[in-house]
């Protein structure tokens, strides 16, 4: 790996923490992003000549903080801004003290940016782009919307926060911002679990970061059942990651996975988090999804899966948090519990919301295949392949489109 590749790799790893730490100092997320990019440019100029520092992350932070001081000094309200940053000189080993009730910069910025001035969608989009490092296309997939819409949400969010003090919510205010913060972690995890684009089936580092932040949040809000519910969901899902790919990197679907490869520690943690959520009261949307994941985790073999309970949980989830995706998953579960014809009937009731969602034709293809309607199934899998932007997923759908016997009528 040459030095430029090293710089870019380090920046990918450190950028979220860099922006979070800088935002804590300058209290302006847009300026924090600019300063982080300035530090990247300086690294690209200096590291090929001077060599890669022993601690590249702190080097980038120190460099960006020097730029922050310079930028604030150039402003007309020089004295007031220097008081905000709290220093007139920054040493290379100077890091801000986490002296508030949130002891994590990333989580602190997530909660701070979940500002009432923004809609939940804009909050989530802004933080996913800034801290999650997700592309606009990836966020659009998560929201089931267009890239243009997501770009406008991010732009509006930054404009709305212009001039708004980035003040940390007090402990009493934290629950009010919980929904957006949990939504951020949920979507970051989902992008890691099933990458929306590119050559990788998953991006485990995103899952790990979402789980880490979830655990921090559970420590911060131990009496909130949905925090534990989300932690349970992420850990139970992440436990499957070792079995989700074959030796060649190709995807392995849930019912075909070797469950002996599931991470037992994550499974135990997930089940414990689910028990904590249940002990605190009625399960919310994340807790219900965790309960569904637990049905799979508790089944030693696919044949042991309690599909009747999964259907009941999906029906409850459809009542608590109705969405087209939940109805799609309910149809798949009904197809497993009551037969593919029953599942297809529910899929046929869906409106056009999921017209560009690859998992809808994939679900139809699976149910049609089980009914022996192989030509129709192949057409649905081909459509799913055309809709997905993930190369591994496209390969899976194309393989299923090419497999299976001919329909008797077509012979």
Topology:
Blueprint: H1 3-26, H2 29-50, H3 56-73, H4 78-85, H5 105-113, H6 120-130, H7 136-143, H8 147-161, H9 178-193, E1 197-198, H10 204-220, H11 225-238, H12 264-279, H13 285-297, H14 307-320, H15 324-338, H16 340-347, H17 359-370, H18 374-387, E2 389-390, H19 391-402
Parallel strand pairs: 1-2
Helix pairs in contact: 1-2, 1-3, 1-5, 2-3, 3-4, 6-8, 6-9, 7-8, 9-10, 9-11, 10-11, 11-12, 11-13, 12-13, 13-14, 14-15, 15-16, 16-17, 17-18, 18-19
Topology order in helix (H) and strand (E) letters: HHHHHHHHHEHHHHHHHHHEH
Quaternary structure annotation: single chain
Portion of residues within helices: 55-70%
Give the strand order of the largest sheet, numbering strands 1, 2, ... along the chain.
Answer: 1-2
* Record field, number of beta strands: 2
Q: Determine the N-to-C terminus distance.
A: 54 Å
Low-confidence stretches: 88-99
Shape: globular
Radius of gyration: 24 Å
What does this structure look like?
The protein has 411 residues and is mainly alpha-helical. The protein has a domain of 83 residues. Helix content is 65%, strand content 1%. It has 19 helices and two strands. The chain has a two-stranded parallel sheet with strand order 1-2. Helix 11 packs antiparallel against helix 12 and helix 13 runs antiparallel to helix 14. It is globular, with a radius of gyration of 24 Å. 40% of the residues are buried. About 3% of the residues have low confidence.
């Amino acid at each position: 790996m040459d030095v430029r590749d090293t710089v870019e790799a380090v920046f990918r790893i450190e950028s979220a923490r860099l922006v979070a730490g800088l935002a804590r100092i300058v209290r302006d997320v847009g300026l924090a992003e600019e300063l982080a990019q300035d530090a990247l440019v300086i690294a690209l100029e200096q590291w090929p000549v001077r060599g890669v520092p022993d601690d590249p992350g702190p080097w980038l932070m120190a460099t960006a903080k020097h730029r922050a001081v310079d930028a604030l000094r150039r402003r007309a309200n020089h004295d007031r801004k220097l008081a905000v940053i709290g220093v007139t000189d920054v040493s290379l080993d100077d890091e801000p003290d986490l002296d508030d009730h949130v002891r994590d910069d990333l989580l602190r910025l997530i909660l701070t940016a979940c500002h009432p001035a923004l809609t939940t969608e804009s909050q989530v989009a802004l933080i996913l782009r800034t801290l999650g490092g997700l592309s606009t296309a990836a966020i659009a997939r998560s929201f089931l919307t267009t890239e243009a819409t997501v770009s406008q949400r991010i732009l509006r969010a930054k404009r709305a926060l212009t001039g708004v003090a980035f003040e940390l919510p007090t402990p009493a205010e934290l629950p009010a911002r919980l929904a957006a913060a949990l939504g951020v972690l949920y979507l970051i995890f989902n992008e890691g679990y099933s990458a929306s684009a590119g050559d990788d089936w998953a991006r485990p580092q995103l899952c790990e970061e979402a789980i880490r932040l979830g655990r921090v949040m559970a420590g911060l809000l131990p009496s909130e059942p949905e925090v534990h519910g989300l932690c349970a969901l992420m850990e139970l899902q992440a436990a499957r990651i070792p079995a989700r790919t074959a030796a060649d990197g190709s995807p392995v679907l849930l019912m075909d996975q070797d469950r002996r490869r599931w991470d037992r520690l994550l499974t135990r943690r997930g089940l414990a988090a689910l028990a904590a959520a249940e002990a605190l009261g009625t399960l919310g949307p994340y807790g219900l999804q965790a309960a569904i994941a637990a049905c799979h985790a508790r089944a030693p073999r696919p044949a042991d899966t309690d599909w009747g309970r999964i259907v009941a949980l999906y029906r409850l989830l459809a009542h608590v948090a109705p969405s087209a995706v939940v109805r799609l998953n309910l149809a798949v579960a009904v197809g497993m519990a009551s037969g593919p014809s029953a599942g297809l009937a529910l899929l046929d009731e869906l409106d056009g919301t999921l017209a560009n969602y690859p998992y809808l034709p994939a679900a139809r293809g699976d149910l049609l295949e089980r009914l022996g309607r192989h030509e129709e199934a192949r057409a649905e899998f081909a459509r799913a392949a055309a809709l997905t932007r993930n190369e591994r997923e496209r390969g899976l759908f194309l393989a299923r489109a090419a497999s299976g016997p001919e329909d008797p009528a077509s012979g």
